[in-house]
Write a structure and sequence with these properties.
Rossmann fold, 236 residues, 7-stranded parallel β-sheet, alpha/beta
Length: 236
Amino acid sequence: MTGAGRSAATTVSMHSTARRVLIVGAGPGLGAALARRFGREGFTITLVARRMEPLTELADELRTLEVVADTFTADAADPEGFRKALEQLAELITPDVVIYNAALVTRDRVLTSAPSHLASAYAVDTLGAITCAQVFTSAMRRAGKGTFLATGGSPGVAPQADHASLSLGKAGLRAAVKLMHEELKADGVHATSVRIAGDIAPGSPVDPDRIADAYWALHMQPPGEWSDEAVFGAWP
């Protein structure tokens, strides 16, 4: 975990000249599928999460597939520490693609949850994505190209009473990416959110590998087809 005043644990090398994707919220499900998908296309993968141990396991798995992968820890629940960590990372790498896949998924309700809990969840679900965009898209704008993708979800459109913080966070994320999309597209940067409609599970209609294919397709979209949101799945 990275907090204010602490150094981030990292295995990142700044010497790779390959195209690079930064995946924030890298884990064993969709994050791993995204890493494999972009790795097949020759991208160097930088994995970011709160704890180093699962990152190391995923990076080792990717290396068995001959994918170049490195790791970096940062905690989106600590907004100031998260920004400092990402600014440190930005001194090492200039990603071509940034994917914000972090979320706090927990059962809670809006009238009984402590404000501190709701604020922490919102930091992960929404503010972290904004911070990522602020730190990394400036270089994309200067280059006139780049992709920023954020993992959304149906609770941001159809709020769920027993997932109140996630509903608030995904609604905020959806609005933030819509604002980013309008500002960035004029500079050649594609920003969009992917609203995943369904529970992610291997072999299901919402299979992580299929979703990863959709993210790759969004990265490859020509500018004339860009939109501020894509939907993957069957329900709202």
